[in-house]
User: Fold this.
Amino acid sequence: MDFISILSIFVMACFVGYYVVWSVTPALHTPLMAVTNAISSVIIVGALIAAAAAGIGEGGATSKWLGLLAVVLASVNIFGGFAVTARMLAMYKKKAPAGAKH
Amino acid sequence: MEHITVNPWASLAYLVAGVCFILALRGLSSPATSQRGNRMGIIGMTIAVVTTLITHVPYLFSDGWTLYAPARDITPFIDWLTVAEILAAIGIGAAIGITTARRIAMTDMPQLVAAFHSLVGLAAVLVACAAFLNPGAFGIAEGGVIFAQSRIEMGLGVAIGAITFSGSVIAFLKLNGNMGGAPILLPGRHVINLGVLAAILGLVGYFTIDQSAWVFWTITVLSFVIGFLLIVPIGGADMPVVVSMLNSYSGWAAAAMGFTLHNTAMIITGALVGSSGAILSYIMCKAMNRSFISVIAGGFGGETAAAGGAPKEQRPWKRGSAEDAAFLLEQAEQVIIVPGYGMAVSQAQHALREMGDKLKAHGVRVKYAIHPVAGRMPGHMNVLLAEANVPYDDVFELEDINSEFAQTDVAFVIGANDVTNPAAKTDKTSPIYGMPVLDVGKAKTVLFIKRSMGGVGYAGVDNDVFYMDNTMMLLGDAKKMVEEIVKSLD
Assistant:
């Protein structure tokens, strides 16, 4: 892909992000931060590439270990981020029908 | 320019992952669809990770060399050791992440989010370093020379990642109480900060003509330093903006790395997260009537005490007991509860919900009014109330409920102060002038739970509501006070 194609995707995605995020209800702003946190760890893709490609040139081995460390960090975020979001979202309940007990 | 050899199916899969992430955020438009949204996010992430694992199998060659691109004639075989290491790395991360997510108290959510931001930042830095040391693996170099465009992307990626990391660490320490919330002001900090920022940008530019290691490492180190310098002077009251801002940075860092790797999933996600954080910062700034620049410049909450709190004469105020409060609440037709950070600190949300239930049983209408900057991060109060099983239909945003105070019998303020201060409307000299506030004073009676009459909120401004004829101060720990009220309601 050339630079302009990538830039186009980026710019369009910014607009999509703008409209999608404004539609998020303020009550869910904390889960929004937690879930954006989890998805921004898609950076794990770069970490996996680095970890899988050792041995080319002298930087290869170091690069592999940096990649593995990044995989750990990003995984903490991915699993932790989605799990904590799920935990929060499960707490948002509709008004219980009259007479029902929590 | 040599292009990265991409498997079209892989590109398609990354695009699908990106779309899943958009749908994940879209799901948050209502609590009813939010859980489905979160699952879309998980699906998207699984697609992205599995695609990468399949397309980047580590190979080992019989002569001991490993090479990711299938560029050599010797038959390769799969490097199972590396595969195991990668899976172990994911496993370790998963174990830490899931344990943390299960154990964390909801009141500690702001710290957790700050800590997670720092991890994204550090991961971005590590990936950028790996790409710099081994550009061949990422297909961004020819004969060891990294493409100029990739150098810019890499330089920006490492800079934003490093700023996100060190900034989030400071935010975490402040939110977690390891570091005082008061702003730390270095002399000449604006000059230093601008100088360092200019140096970073200059070096990123210079990096395109000289790919020496020192340029890359200097950018990295300076960015760690500037992240630290930027957040240190920002006071506790501005933390909602800081957390949102760092959220935005973590997105831009991912996007910059997405440009380097030509990866659609990363670019889409980066743009989504970047705009999300930016919008949240904007909402928080607006809710405090402060400009983004003035928040970044820092210092709020420390030096302002003198500006607004011109020594006022001792004014008379009324003190009430839990029994008095219970009596007033029982008699009311409608009660609006206004929670603030103080509720989070004393973990009073469960007791508060119990009080709400008792009042409802007495036939009182109970509503909750949330100011956008109540607490330490956007939506902080909503999560705590949800944790305590308060139905979200009872919880209202500032603009939806503010007109109702005039028809309300009791406004019950618990651990909130600045967000109820009428000085924001009347006193032009007040540091919070212009900030939208909840009109609790318009209610027939105001019950104000406060630890003592001494402290006056983060902005350091006295609150006229304390001294109004229709206000009764309930002094004490928020949780204990609410529990006593609950007892008296029987």
Observations:
- Confidence is low (pLDDT under 50) at residues 98-102 of chain A.
